[in-house]
Records
---
Amino acid sequence: MYLTLKEAAEYLSLPEQYIQSLIQQGKIRTVFDGEQYVVNKEQFNTHFEQLEKYKKQMEEYLSEPIPEDMDVKDED
């Protein structure tokens, strides 16, 4: 599925100017359909998969209990 630049900005929750700068930097691929540039929505799947992976890793990290300090229990 192809999105216009405005639709891509809404889909990614980013400003349209930022999307345009990412396109100029070559970070987002576009296709010219004869009237306008459009973005293939599938290229963002990996991005969203990585975000989910990092969220899960952070949740696991933050849910680990803090180990007790061995020096605190020492009564010497």
Note: The chain is about 55% helix and 15% strand.
---
Amino acid sequence: MKGEYKMAFKKDFLWGGATAANQCEGGSNEGKRGLANVDLMPLGKERYLVGTGKKKMYEFNENYFYPALTAVDFYHHYKEDIALFAEMGFKTFRLSIAWTRIFPNGDEQTPNEEGLKFYEDVFKECHKYGIEPLVTLNHFDCPMHLVKTIGGWRSREMITHFLKLCKVLFNRYKGLVKYWLTFNEINMILHFPFVAAGIYFEENENNTQATITAVHHQLVASALVTKMAHEINQENQIGCMVAAGSYYPETCKPEDYWKAICDNREVYMFTDVQARGYYPNYAIKWIEKRNAIIPFAKEDKEILKNNTVDFVSFSYYSSRVSSSDEDKGNQSESNIFSSAINPYLKTSQWGWAIDPLGFRSTINELYDRYQKPLFVVENGLGAKDTVAEDGSIHDEYRIEYLREHIRSMKAAVEEDGVEIMGYTTWGCIDLISNGTGEVAKRYGFIYVDRDNLGNGSYQRKKKDSFY
């Protein structure tokens, strides 16, 4: 099996695993770190309301549990965890920077040295084992001070604050990091706007306008960061990132097929700007139809045009189904995206369709669309794992999921001619689920002894998938 994959993929193919600061790091009150929007995402049914900007939660409430505060405590375990990644043969490790570790409020003039030193130590630990860091500059992370004072990414002022952060990071980690992603799953702003952009919707406002304003500011920031990265270090490679997964029409009824086209466009329209350099006409019409406008400043169109990304990265967990029957459109949910049920596919314990061939379809769709190198930065199975009496964890369901998806990726490379830079599973170690806040929805090859309410030893155990 190992030989089979080595023959298909280039020698410098970046195999590894992926995490995010708010879902694995913990240590929220250490190292002078500030408060972030993602810290305030509670466990339980209110999580979705907060994440969608429908419930205001700008301070901690003693009636709720906030899983990101401890997460799985990578902050104190990073040396042990990276050693385990190396034992698995990782060539890359995707992680994100917690903005409030570097600028606790987001608007300080001087960065926090303790935060900078923490990530420097993490990157050096990676290099000790020959692991290349892949760093997401913004993975659902916004200083709450900026949410409270300027409204998060609603404000164009956020671009200045973000550029200041990125300039510090590019200069400090020159020689340690060369692969960067700007915004994680940028299309998620349409579905989880408080998480993705620090947006809480005020009563009677045009929610679409608030969202489009925020995402335009992120798109301009992404382009300016891409420009900056190339100027600071020619070795830097910058990618965008989208939550992908092709929509199938439920039937061959023309209305279903058209709905699938529209749903797929809603996934890709913002990545289109980052990879092609302009808003496509269908996106402009989509925005106009919702009584919103793109808040272009004088130089924005040139900035977007001249600073497209080097590669396109994406997450894939499952395919989705579009139905022109509105009652069927919300029958199941995959990564917060609504979908009709696909009767031809098995599902995970959380109802996500398992579709390895859909992975190949999505890969080809993205490559045909952008003609840029691709990087699979999230793919994995969330499942309940059981620790046997002898301490072993038999997760053959995860092994099967990943084996079949890697085979589909191999076919995309070998048979379809797609250029793929690397593949990082989500998450290589158990962490907090973004959608539900649970740890019981486990993704890792490494089990962390922690329950949904933060109880446990936080001891690491190897699952069968680790081997």
Note: The chain has one domain: 2-466.
